[in-house]
Amino acid sequence: MIRSAARRGWEAATVYLPVLLMGLLALGTWWLVRNAPMPQLPRTEVEKVHEADYFMRDFSVKNFDAGGVLQSELQGSLARHYPDTDTIDIDAVKMRSLAPNGRLTHATANRALSNGDGTEVQLFGNAVVTREALSLPGEKIQPRLEFRGEFLHAWTQTERVSSNQPVTLTRGNDRFTANSMDYDNLEQVLELRGRVQGTMVPSRR
To answer: Could you report the per-residue pLDDT of 113-147, keeping only the tens digit for each?
Structure first.
């Protein structure tokens, strides 16, 4: 019963958060790959080893719209690109994006790992993704929404977010915990698995 209630309660509220996060991650990894120096091609084929071919330290990548308004930002203490796996490893990652309606989404983690084209991103250690509350004239207040766990895994093309580790989801005063989760934005379905517990606070009218 609690799983059914959690599914209905979170289904509508979590439609845009994973899309904003995955779009921001894709933007950052695309920029890093686009602006990184191209490694020289070896004259002879050698055995591939897992070693970084370039680094970026204490970097910040910002994206602005045509009017000069900040749309998104990606920060990290250290980024490493590995040519053998075509992956980008970022330490102390911080991300934020501003939607056209003014809603702010930000994410932090001890480490992020993305493939070369940004279609698959993993957040490790103290991973927190937050969509701040938003109040628009004539519309119902959209409460603050937060995903928290030690691991979050996102696929940008299929618009999925999952975790095989314990997660905590908070929406306003409502709070849910589970041993694992799988969110599918295309189907607009959130599945909480394992030991699921939740607290739903009735809204005041």
So the answer is: 988 777 788 999 999 988 888 888 877 888 888 88
pLDDT for the residue numbered 5: 46
Distance (Å) of CA 85 to CA 42, 113, 139: 17, 11, 46
Q: Which residues contact 19 (CB under 8 A, 6 or more apart)?
A: 159, 185
The three state secondary structure string of 162-183 is EECCCEEEEECCEEEEECEEEE
Helix, strand, coil % over all residues of the chain, rounded to 5: 15, 50, 35
**Cα gap 70→57, rounded to integer Å:** 22
Own/partner contacts of 56-65, CB < 8 Å, gap of 24 or more, are 56/32, 61/27, 61/28, 61/31, 61/32, 63/27, 63/31
User: Which one-letter DSSP state was computed for residue 67?
Assistant: T
Give the strand pairing for 167-171 and 70-82.
unpaired
State the pLDDT at residue 148: 92
The torsion region of residue 86 among left (phi > 0), alpha (psi -120 to 50) and beta comes to left
